[in-house]
Amino acid sequence: MSTTLDDVKGRFELLWDRIVEDSELGSVYGKILSILYLSDEPASQRDLSQKTQVSIPAVSKALDYLVAEGVVRKFKKKGDRTYYYSTLKNPREMVIQRYSKILEAQENIRQEILSLKTELKHSYIKEKEKGEARRLHSILQDFEEIFNEVEKALVELNLTLAKR
């Protein structure tokens, strides 16, 4: 069965969603982590929501992720029903771990871009779709170049952090 332009476009949209999602995570997570790292006391979801000016559901989602990643600890104080959060790792370890994961995700996205370019090259494209296919190829080419540059920078940063 031949891949169509619509198939490649659908995968491209999913890839773009991943890229946007990854980039938007940083803001809320960064705010929460900075508050927890700089505080002597653990914080509740409500505390973090007020300090970050982010909704409680968004804070909750971020905290669930950070707990699952092993960066933040979730616990209750004796006699209190509220959950509190504190950091488990020092910032240096967390940054090195995060950049290693970003580098891995970066490589996965780069491979997906290469796969999309190959699929597009071998897709059945109707005459009226050729302009759209050229635009998509151009975008994928730009993404590949950008991701190659970002990958180089991340590798260099990772090596620098590991040396310290």
How would you describe the overall organization of this protein?
The chain is mainly alpha-helical. It has a single domain, classed as Orthogonal Bundle (Arc Repressor Mutant, subunit A), CATH 1.10.10.10. The chain has five helices and three strands. The protein has helices at 5-38, 45-52, 56-68, 91-121, 130-163, and strands at residues 43-44, 72-76, 83-87. Strands 1-3-2 form a three-stranded antiparallel sheet. α1 (5-38) packs across α3 (56-68) and α4 packs antiparallel against α5 (130-163). The termini are far apart. The model has no long low-confidence stretch (mean pLDDT 83).
Walk me through the topology.
Blueprint: H1 5-38, E1 43-44, H2 45-52, H3 56-68, E2 72-76, E3 83-87, H4 91-121, H5 130-163
Antiparallel strand pairs: 1-3, 2-3
- CATH topology (fold) name: Arc Repressor Mutant, subunit A
CATH homology-level superfamily: Winged helix-like DNA-binding domain superfamily/Winged helix DNA-binding domain
Q: What would the principal axes of the Cα set say about the shape? A: elongated
The H-and-E topology, N to C, reads as: HEHHEEHH
Q: What is the average of the pLDDT values? A: 83
Strand content: 5-15%
Strand count, sense and barrel status of the largest sheet are: 3 strands, antiparallel
CATH architecture label name? Orthogonal Bundle
Measure the end-to-end span: 52 Å
Rg is 21 Å
Structural class: mainly alpha
Taken together, the total number of domains comes to 1
Order of adjacent strands in the largest pleated sheet = 1-3-2
* Count, helices: 5
